[in-house]
Amino acid sequence: MSNWYPQQILQEPGVRMSATERQTILSKFPPPDENNQIYADAIFEGGGVRGVAFLGALRCCSDLGIRWRKLAGTSAGAITAAVLATDLSMDDLEEILGQLDYSIFLTQKNSPLILNGDPADDLQSPAWTLLFLTISRQMGEYSSQPFRQWLEATLGRGNLHSFADVKQIVKDRELKVVISNLTRGEMLVIPDDLHRRESADSDALYENLQLKSAEDFSVAEAVRLSMSIPLFFEPGKLGNDLIVDGGILSNFPLWIYDRQSGSTPVAPRWFTFGFRLVDTGIENQMKINNPVSMLSAMFTTMMKARDRYHQREMDKGRVINIDVTEAQVTTTDFHLDAASKANLYRLGYLYTKRFFLSSNFSWEKHLKARGFGE
């Protein structure tokens, strides 16, 4: 697969923000700190390989000088959040992803009896997928080990190995990853919920994983668990529990850093942005005319409905919607070509810039929408 070159995309007419646009946008932000730094928190939605669009969005934010504090995500969003937590430069991130051939993540099929064709269509044809998995007695088409190895090496370039490293890289930074525990029927936020098991169970888990505390847990492993797309990748394990894609229970955890009920209201010091991928081909009403299409619709509803409700109630003008419809890329299109990558990156930058330039975006309006200010 040929490489793509972000700098060429940014040089296209009308893509990169002008000096005037930058000044206009920055006038809407809260004042910088004593070191003249602008901070924000970021939550990233899951979306498979379409997460390349987040890279364009982050370049736009980098052009504004935004530095990140609290980061969180699910699935592909967890990948973005974790890589961003390393504090590698935008140039480094673009180089890493520009050279990445996503098909390397599909090099270990779990059985020769799994006779799927183009992986891009697998989740749209769940009946065939289920048939092959049943015949082969597997719970996922592909091993996620190649992905874990790549991510571990990538995070290592930025000195990020465990959750304990996050605050060592940048003071007061946080990173949270959402996973789905099928064995216990619950959503978990890593590393927080490793603390919240019953004490005896927690001790057994730490011993099993050779951990002294939850912060010692591997970031690469947490993200691998979060992106284990059901049926596509084999489920992961947390102790003896079976873990799959966090998107099953919360694909867009915009709520994760919000004030909990009962706590004392404290006005935020900076924005919390939610980066969401929109595909109108998926968002449109689903056609359900047989049991197979019903199964597919149930799967989509599980991943979307809960977060759509929370977004309606809690978005507070902080959600950056990146419409990737025209890219025509599915979640599992791991044979992503350079042109599709470039289009996703371009859309990420343009929709983020459009959000910041919108008349509805300002620090004052953001505070008011969240219940602070006049």
Explain the overall architecture.
- The protein has 374 residues and is α/β, with parallel strands linked by helices.
- 40% of the residues lie in helices and 15% in strands.
- It contains 15 helices and 10 strands.
- Strands 1, 2, 4, 5, 7, 8, 9 and 10 form an 8-stranded mixed beta sheet that branches. It has a two-stranded parallel ribbon with strand order 3-6.
- Helix 3 (52-64) links the parallel strand 1 and strand 2.
- Helix 3 (52-64) crosses helix 14 and helix 7 (145-157) crosses helix 10 (219-226).
- It is globular and about 60 Å long.
* Computed structural class: alpha/beta
Query: Biggest β-sheet: count, sense, barrel?
Result: 8 strands, mixed
- Tally of individual helices: 15
In N-to-C order, the SSE pattern is HHEHEHHHEHHEEHHEEEHEHHEHH
Rounded to an integer in angstroms, the radius of gyration calculated over CA atoms is 20 Å
Unreliable spans: none
The amount of beta strand, in percent, is: 5-15%
Helix content: 40-55%
Total beta-strand segments? 10
How far apart, in Å, are the first and last alpha carbons? 54 Å
> What is the averaged pLDDT score?
83
Q: What is this structure's SSE topology?
A:
Elements: H1 6-10, H2 19-26, E1 38-44, H3 52-64, E2 66-74, H4 76-85, H5 90-98, H6 126-136, E3 140-142, H7 145-157, H8 166-169, E4 174-181, E5 186-190, H9 199-209, H10 219-226, E6 231-233, E7 236-238, E8 241-245, H11 247-250, E9 271-278, H12 280-283, H13 291-314, E10 319-323, H14 338-357, H15 363-369
Parallel strand pairs: 1-2, 1-9, 2-4, 3-6, 9-10
Antiparallel strand pairs: 4-5, 4-8, 7-8
Helix pairs in contact: 3-5, 3-14, 4-10, 7-10
